[in-house]
Amino acid sequence: MEQVLDIISWICIGFGAFFAVTGGVGLFRFPDFYSRVHASGMDDTLGVLLILLGLLIQNGLDLNGAKLIFIFFFLLFTGPAATHALVKAARHGGLKPLLGEGASSEEEREDEKSK
Amino acid sequence: MNHLATLTALMVGFWLLLSGHYTVLMLFFMVISIALVVWLSVRMQAASYQINPLLQSFRIFSYLLWLVVEIVKASIDVAMRVWGLKPIKPAIRRFPAPQKTDLGKTIYANSVTLTPGTLTLGLDEETNELIIHSIHEELFEDLDGGAMGQKVSHMEGK
Prior knowledge:
The complex is a heterodimer.
Chain A: H1 2-29, H2 33-59, H3 63-92, H4 106-114
Helix pairs in contact in A: 1-2, 2-3
Chain B: H1 2-19, H2 24-47, H3 59-82, E1 91-96, H4 102-114, E2 118-124, E3 129-134, H5 140-144, H6 147-156
Antiparallel strand pairs in B: 1-3, 2-3
Helix pairs in contact in B: 1-2, 3-6, 4-6
């Protein structure tokens, strides 16, 4: 039984790490500020959720487990607040989002700049 | 008064879960700190113009569960777009925010932001619309039905 729980928790932590890395890669691959925020949003939701779930299974439901659950709920509230602050600052600064198909590749954007 | 009792009970539960030290001295500190927080929130409520029914309702827990499922689905979708398995095509659209209270609108806007792939840029106060940025137009379809908005309104219900 303990071994089964161990395996489940490592699967959770592994997938959590995968989503965290994916968020990081997205931060580089996506074309502009606003789409990059989407990538980082994955880190503070599913990445954190899976890693905390894995740790919770490792730890069991005691006082420390309750703290892990609290961390998740607090992140649900603070994550969007930080994102809104970032996005509001960007809009206030007059940063225009890239829209439509043209935004999909870095090279095309360079082409348009040179025109 | 009922509201204060709920708040105090929540605080006591929260403190006991966080602490783990149940000596008399620590419990004494608990009473003092909770009394301070309750007093502060009474003062703050005197200044706020909306009493929110959301905190008194347990619907928020079922909503959070539903939201986590949505987050998982949307994260997988965005992960595929990161690795180039699906295209990206950023777009901005306006969606109505039918919630009556400010807190309801905030929860709706935050839920949209929490769901990967959609991001609330702002709230147009005149038309009561959320300005939402999305990594691909397709993701607007999830919002079109208004399922998320309706669930938030339902929480406000009572």
